[in-house]
Design goal:
The protein is α/β, with parallel strands linked by helices and about 425 residues long. The strands form five sheets. It has a ten-stranded mixed beta sheet, sandwiched between helices. Strands 15, 17, 18 and 19 form a four-stranded mixed beta sheet that branches. A three-stranded antiparallel beta sheet has the order 12-14-13, covered by helices on one side. A hairpin with a 2-residue loop joins strand 17 and strand 18. The model has no long low-confidence stretch (mean pLDDT about 95).
């Protein structure tokens, strides 16, 4: 099994957790390369549902090494809660590793995240207010605190004091919020650091050593392509590189070691938070309501109702290009069983100009009008199908149209939430 990047191709919530869990058993290591606990991956095992926010999906397999890479930001409290959850259920975390270079989400990051959103008012980004953006902001400003810093109290105190000299005036004078002391944060964070000490390592060296030994690595992305800080619908994006290229910088593994890129696409499209979404259907419409409720489109991390719309082939085409997709995993095809006919966006009309890939200019995308094709639905339950040939012809034709629009092969088709409800067409 070659090393592979798994990446979301829309605005997130495509079902990355399920697909990652499905194929993780075939890899020696799973590494999460960006994001923090603003992302949620849902994994269903039997009658147990796990919502993961920090720990990679490979944790479900005890022989698999699970790595939180240097490109991630870590909330130690959330990480320990997930570790405790797994250990209580008899799932070992002995093979969990955390990069010493991953940055730490601090209490003031969460305060500032909420304050920035409030300041933006109606133009807010729609963040989860988990402190992710401010943490990455400190990283780029070179004043961030890393996991390795917490392992030495003197270092942690010294760096923290310098950060608070800069942060506290913002909290107090700009936002009227409580400030922090070094002792206050150390009393909370240093005990957590001791519990996490056995997990912290030099992750880049670990990953490259594994590859040199002939081991396979699965690079697990959080969020998705249209939320990428460089290639997403800026400014309504997250603060890290969610695209396949982020796997390189977020793990410390060279690009020559990555052989395949598996893009996860939902059979329709959803988005949480603010920003343009050309194929959006109002919840009050029959189609919008059906997609939301049949697909149970509510966020794992926040519980917020997701915005829903028809499949966007323009975004599929764009994502295939910027990620270099070699394969696609198509999820939630079963949700479309409720429709007599199904619309697919094949292009945008932007002030009279036709686009088949996402326009670079923000204003053009914001005013994009979807150009639809209408395909026949199948109007039958497909959740028991276990091979592609068992699917109705209309469903197979729908998959084929997505392949044409994305210029990549659909290797997996998901027809339900359980592991066994995923049809493997061509993935080896």
């Amino acid at each position: 099994m070659s090393s592979t990047v798994l990446v979301g191709t829309q605005w997130g919530d495509e079902g990355k957790g399920k697909i990652c869990d499905l194929i993780a058993r075939d890899f020696d290591c799973v590494v999460r390369y960006q994001g923090g606990n603003n992302a949620g991956h849902t994994i269903v095992v039997g009658d147990r549902k796990y919502g993961l926010h920090q720990v990679p999906s490979g944790i479900m397999y005890p022989e698999c090494i699970s790595v939180i890479g240097n490109g991630c930001v870590v909330n130690p409290k959330v990480l320990l809660e997930e570790i405790d959850m797994f250990e209580a259920d008899g799932i070992s975390t002995a093979n969990l590793k955390v990069s010493g270079n991953a940055h730490v989400i601090m209490p003031y990051h969460m305060d500032l995240d909420g304050a920035y959103e409030e300041l933006l008012g109606s133009h807010n980004i729609g963040t989860t207010k988990r402190g992710i953006g401010p943490c990455y902001q400190d990283k780029m400003a070179r004043i961030g605190l890393r996991m390795q810093d917490m392992l030495d109290e003197a270092t942690f105190r010294d760096k923290l004091a310098r950060v608070l000299d800069r942060v506290n005036p913002q909290l107090e004078k700009i936002f009227g919020l409580p400030t922090y002391t070094v002792d206050q944060i150390c009393d909370e964070y240093l005990p957590m650091a001791e519990r996490l000490r056995p997990y912290i390592c030099e992750s880049s060296r670990l990953l490259n050593d594994l590859i040199e030994e002939g081991k396979s690595v699965l690079f697990e992305g959080a969020q998705a392509t249209l939320l990428d800080i460089d290639h997403g619908t800026y400014p309504y994006v997250t603060s890290s590189n969610c695209t396949a290229g982020g796997a390189v910088t977020g793990s410390g593994v060279g690009p020559g070691n990555i052989e395949r890129v598996l893009g996860i696409m939902k059979a329709y499209i959803t988005r949480v938070g603010s920003g343009p979404m050309p194929t959006e259907l109002a919840y009050e419409t029959d189609a919008g309501h059906t997609l939301t409720e049949e697909g149970y489109e509510y966020g794992v991390t926040t519980g917020r109702r997701r915005r829903c719309g028809w499949f966007d082939g323009v975004i599929a085409n764009y994502s295939a290009r910027v990620n270099g997709l070699t394969h696609i995993a198509l999820t939630k095809l079963d949700v479309l069983s409720a429709f007599d006919t199904i619309k697919v966006c094949v292009a945008y009309d932007c002030d009279g100009e036709r686009y088949t890939t996402v326009p670079e200019h923000e204003a053009a995308f914001a005013n994009a009008v979807p150009v639809y094709e209408e395909l026949p639905g199948w109007k039958c339950d497909i959740t028991a199908c276990r091979s592609f040939d068992e699917l109705p012809q209309e469903a197979r034709d729908y998959v084929a149209r997505i392949e044409e629009l994305a210029h990549a092969e659909v290797a997996f088709v998901s027809v339900g939430p359980d592991r066994e409800q995923t049809i493997n067409r061509s993935w080896e």
